[in-house]
Write a structure and sequence with these properties.
262 residues, three-stranded antiparallel sheet, 17 strands, 11% helix
Length: 262
């Protein structure tokens, strides 16, 4: 039995990992995820580590755009307004000067495995730092797609009403506006049945694990640093909010598309 649970409220594409991105009206998913999403990342000069705002906060102050394809480099705008155009021969030098370390812009390949670093200790981010390998083709955290519902955000917001529970804190690829009759941490129940979103089919893989990234300030969205965001998620749902999945059937997704389970 198929049950309609909501509609697509927003689509988020982040051409460069941990930078701000764009919200197109339509995107395409291939087997590796959203086309044009996180195909690029700022890497340590050695190419052996992916820089993420989980450890390098300034990345969230830059923004990247592309043409919605995986071809070519993105356009990057730094916090001071400087624009790095695709193919700029000084790209690596400009990024290095901005971050105060030797870095380069790198493209994900079919091999994958380059790790990013993170800590789950929001009070001491130098404690228990883990290296997590990225999958092939995209510098996503763990899986090909990340879903989040408005019902789950509202549920967490009720537990910490003073917090700003803006979806941009959580950076889902697809934000789903659930039917008003649906309440609670709804994605937690999507564990086995396929999820159909517009022209794609998603197979649930695991809940989305939350970390210090959700506590970061994001000036472009008017968000201040708030450690209680992730602490609330930890206390109320074992540190999880949202759903990671794999792409079982590829296709297009548009704003307003229906979302169904089963």
């Amino acid at each position: 039995m198929t049950t309609i649970v909501g509609r697509v409220a927003a689509l988020n594409r982040y051409p460069v990992k941990s930078m701000q991105g764009e919200q197109p009206d339509q995107v395409t998913f291939d087997a590796s995820g959203m086309v044009g999403d996180r195909r690029w990342a700022v890497l340590a000069a050695s190419g052996e580590v992916v820089l993420s705002a989980k450890r390098v906060k300034p990345l969230l102050d830059a923004a990247a755009t592309n043409d919605g394809t995986d071809d070519g480099r993105p356009t990057i705008t730094l916090p001071d307004g400087q624009v790095i155009e695709p193919g700029d021969p000084d790209t690596h030098a400009i990024l290095s000067a901005w971050l105060g370390r030797d870095v380069r812009l790198g493209r994900a390949d079919a091999t994958g495995g380059i790790p990013y670093e993170m800590s789950f200790n929001v009070d001491d981010e130098t404690d228990a730092v883990f290296a997590v390998p990225t999958p092939p083709h995209r510098f996503v955290d763990l899986c090909q797609i990340h879903l989040l519902t408005t019902a789950s955000i509202a549920t967490m917001a009720a537990a910490h009403p003073d917090g700003a529970w803006d979806p941009h804190r959580f950076r889902p690829g697809v934000l789903i506006e659930t039917d008003p009759s649906i309440t609670g941490l709804v994605e937690s129940t999507w564990t086995e049945a396929p999820v159909t979103i517009g022209g794609i089919t998603v197979m649930p893989v695991m809940p989305t694990i939350r970390c210090v990234m959700t506590t970061r300030a994001q000036s472009v969205h008017g968000l201040e640093r708030d450690l209680d965001i992730v602490k609330t998620v930890n206390a109320n749902n074992d540190g999880n909010l949202g759903l990671y999945g794999s792409i079982a059937a590829t296709g297009a997704v548009r704003i307003g598309d229906s979302v169904s389970i089963g």
